[in-house]
Amino acid sequence: ENGDAPTELFIDGEDLTPVTMSLGSLSVTGADVSFLQAIEENMGDEDAMGQAVFSKLYENPINPPYDGFSMKDFAVEVAGAAFAMPEMTGTIERNSDGEPVKFVTKPFTMSLSADPEGGEAGASLAGALSMVGYEKVELKGEGVSNYDPKTDIISFSADDNFLEIVDGAKFSYGGKIGGYNAYSKAIGESMNFDDMSEGAEPDPAAIQEAAGLLIFHNMKIAIKDESLVDRIFNVVATQQGQDPEQMRNQAVMMMGMAPMMAQQVGADMNLVTELSSAVSAFIAKPGTLTIAIEPKEPLAVSTLMEVSDPSQITKEMLGFSATHKE
After folding, report:
1. Of 104, 119, 109, which Cα lies nearest the Cα of 140?
2. At 106, which helix (H) or strand (E)?
3. What's the pTM?
4. Exposure pattern of 192-211 as b/e (b: 16+ CB <10 Å)?
5. DSSP letter (8 states) at residue 267
6. Residues in contact with 289: Cβ distance below 8 Å, sequence separation at least 6, in sequence order
7. For residues 71 and 78, what is the distance between their CA atoms, to the nearest angstrom?
8. Which residues in the chain come in under a pLDDT of 70?
């Protein structure tokens, strides 16, 4: 509990940069004793505490050592660049055996803003935001997932899972994926948090091996444009001294050539043609781009990894579809 009193830190450099942080409240319900001990034993060392907390979380990622959390009025300001999150709340529902069966992240908002007079970071961020026509960036999101511990399948609907850039674009996602706990555990085992704190990267081979444990029943991603495509073309065209509309037309033409390029590497023409047509339409007249896979039988990622001939990964095999709606 930090109330209204901000904490001031400093970033090392040629000149010390003040970092102001404030947190109205943070609460955790149903916390496992070992999780609380990991925090308590490292109270004097922020890096050690972070490593200990992440290590506990990744011991069994599908079964976090708490039943819920709530964070209110979190804010960070660094030399004129400011991040704010009024509230974020998450809950975990469990069955009679104590196994998690539902994960909920309640609707939240967060924002990134800049004061060009507040310092170098603020001036830099303000310039970047103005290039895409924003005074500040506001994000909204929420998430609801259901988990079956007996089958190790997690499912989530695109109606309840999204991240939205206000006055930009809304990214929604849904799916049904098996092997999720096995994948999460393998990811956790592949990470050495002591090494990562020193700048080491996770082992790519281990990450790939973990991904092979996933089994896709279906998956859908939808992007609803609300101005972001226009903003991107305006920025890139301005930087390159071109007309935005002309650059957009060039992008559409390049996407139209994708099937010919794919044919040279042996990719499935039906899949590539449908994808390129939908993306071309989305670029030309932004609306909603939806990409989905719905295989007739659950499809293991390991099966895809074993395919040596790209022509074997077909539209029919994936149950692939790509559509654009104005």
Report:
1. 109
2. strand 100-114
3. 0.85
4. ebeeeeeeeeeeeeeeebbb
5. -
6. 222, 223, 225, 278, 279, 282, 322, 323, 324
7. 20
8. 1-16, 43-47, 50, 192-200
